[in-house]
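hiii so um. not sure if this is the right channel but i have a protein structure encoded as tokens and i wanna go backwards to a sequence. like what aa goes where. can anyone help
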């Protein structure tokens, strides 16, 4: 039974490695292949440009002032907050089952 599980894991490992290699090699091929002579450039539509500008503004806004987003995340995930139910940092590290050397520091 153990050998069957190891064989299955080995097959999954090989398949995921092949898939990853395929995607990474596509990047390398794109880097070193010759660029087309006259590639046509496409202009973005007005709706696409508008969405891009709105997303850029939101990205900068939440990067500079993240409090509203963090508060929204805290309120929506309030019931799932494990750290709030643990009273001390040492209890938290003990609950995560880290080695005691990490807890003592």
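sure thing!! here u go:
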């Amino acid at each position: 039974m153990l050998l069957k599980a190891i064989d299955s894991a080995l097959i999954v490992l090989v398949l995921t490695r092949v898939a990853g290699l395929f995607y990474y090699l596509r990047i390398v091929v794109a880097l070193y292949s010759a660029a087309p002579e006259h590639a046509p450039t496409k202009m973005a539509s007005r709706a696409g440009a508008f969405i891009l500008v709105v997303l850029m503004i939101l990205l900068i806004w939440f990067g500079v002032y993240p409090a509203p987003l963090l508060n929204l995340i805290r309120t929506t995930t309030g019931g799932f907050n494990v750290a709030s139910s643990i009273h001390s940092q040492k209890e938290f590290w003990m609950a995560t089952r880290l080695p005691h050397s990490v807890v003592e520091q």
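oh and Residues 1-33 form one domain.
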